[in-house]
UniProtKB/TrEMBL annotation:
Belongs to the inositol monophosphatase superfamily. SUPFAM superfamilies: Carbohydrate phosphatase. This is Histidinol-phosphatase. PROSITE patterns: IMP_1. GO terms for molecular function: histidinol-phosphatase activity; metal ion binding. One of its GO terms (biological process) is L-histidine biosynthetic process. InterPro entries: Inositol_monoP_metal-BS, Inositol_monoP_superfamily, Inositol_monophosphatase-like. Mg(2+) binds at E85, D101, I103, D104, D240. Its cofactor is Mg(2+). Its EC number is 3.1.3.15. The gene is hisN_2.
Length: 287
């Protein structure tokens, strides 16, 4: 896939912003619904796990959540395209495409770790640019969402029944990764790159004050709300990445490739609070 050129947040076309605002509440609602579906399977002793050809796991929870998301999107926006992790792509005619990861962090999910998330985004198809994103962490009761030009908004203890107040999300103000927290989802992914990047991982680990594998979508939410300064993935699919860029940018941070390109199509990702980006790219660029 050719990497589309990203627009500056200040120059997003008005029609993109209108499309994002039209879809944002629905995106948030159906993501919360998908989270409730996955919670019915979470820590179930009878949960059955299958392994796909790419050696990644899938469960009935992944499949049920994506089926629900697709059904709900078609109810409200039947002309939009849909691309999800578990089922074939549905072409659309509206110029907008929903990107779905019903469970980001299936491995934590299947082991009962409450850091998995449900990810939903919408892309403007011609440019490939994401115009909104939602991260829902149903086991911890946290959500964060953003539409371009509208800020990023965090809710703790909300869910379908409400109860949690929305607050403006903002990245941390730390200027030096040496004082900050570096997160990643899978250390092995650094080794699995075409050019072994194990030393890149160790360089980031040695630079940061603290490093942990509180990864997947939850790690990116931590950067967006200021609880971490850096999250890095060595390998990503578009359904892992699409919702992250609008959330990080609207929270005042960055989402880029390892070389610093602001795109969700690079097959990799770096989220920062903006202040440490240059420091991080000095380690990752060219790897």
């Amino acid at each position: 896939m050719t990497t589309p050129a990203a627009a500056s947040p200040a120059t997003y076309p008005a029609e993109w912003k209108a499309a994002a605002n039209e879809r944002l509440d629905w995106a948030r609602q159906i993501t919360l619904e998908a989270g409730e579906i996955t919670q019915t399977y979470f820590r179930s002793p009878t949960l059955r796990i299958e392994w796909k050809e790419d050696r990644t796991p899938v469960t009935l929870a992944d499949q049920a959540a994506e089926q629900h998301l697709r059904k709900r999107i078609e109810e409200r926006f039947p002309d939009d395209g849909i691309l999800g992790e578990e089922y074939p792509e549905k072409p659309g005619t509206s110029g907008y495409k929903w990107i779905l990861d019903p469970i980001d962090g299936t491995k934590p999910f299947m082991h009962g770790v409450p850091l998995y998330t449900n990810l939903v985004a919408v892309l403007e198809e011609a440019s490939g640019e994401p115009i909104l994103g939602v991260i829902n962490a149903p086991a911890s009761g946290e959500t964060i969402h953003a539409a371009i030009g509208g800020g990023a908004w965090y809710q703790n203890g909300g869910g379908q029944n409400g109860g949690g107040e929305l607050s403006r999300a903002h990245v941390s103000e730390l200027k030096d990764l040496g004082e900050g927290l570096f997160l990643t989802g899978d250390v092995g992914g650094f080794q699995d790159r075409a050019e072994d990047a194990t030393e890149t991982y160790f360089a980031l680990q040695q630079t940061a004050r603290i490093s942990r594998t509180w990864g997947d979508g939850y790690g990116y939410m931590m950067v967006a709300v200021g609880r971490a300064e850096l999250m890095v993935d060595a390998k990503m699919s578009v359904w892992d990445a699409a919702c992250l860029k609008p959330i990080l940018e609207e929270a005042g941070g960055t989402f880029t490739s390892w070389s610093g390109d602001p795109t969700v199509h690079a097959g990799e990702g770096i989220a920062t609070n903006g202040h440490v980006l240059k420091q991080v790219l000095a380690i990752t660029a060219g790897k």
